[in-house]
Amino acid sequence: TQDWAPSAYGHTDVWNGAEISWNDLRSGVPEATRTGKTVMMVFHAPWCTSCKQYRTLFMDPRIVEASRNLVMILINADEDKTANGAFAPDGTYVPKVDDLRAIALQV
Q1: Tell me: the pLDDT tens digits for 19-29?
Q2: Most-buried pick from 55, 61, 63, 85 (CB within 10 A)?
Q3: Omega before 61 cis (within 30°)?
């Protein structure tokens, strides 16, 4: 299997989907509303070498533990250009991490 092969929610297999509960945008926003948890959205692209380096952070047990207190949303910027543009107060680039609370304050 190539490391960019698509899977549910934008390549969770290579973003430590075994330990981090990744959501897509459709399931993540209602989850955050229901639980009151902060959302962390991670935008990536399969061709992005910086993204490949960045995703190794999500293997760190401290990051895995911290993710349990957040609603984690993983977005492939190439596959979901609408979301990439909608959550781009400072531009569309990858890798990018957004906190929905911070975006709401900027809008």
Answers
A1: 999 998 889 88
A2: 55
A3: no
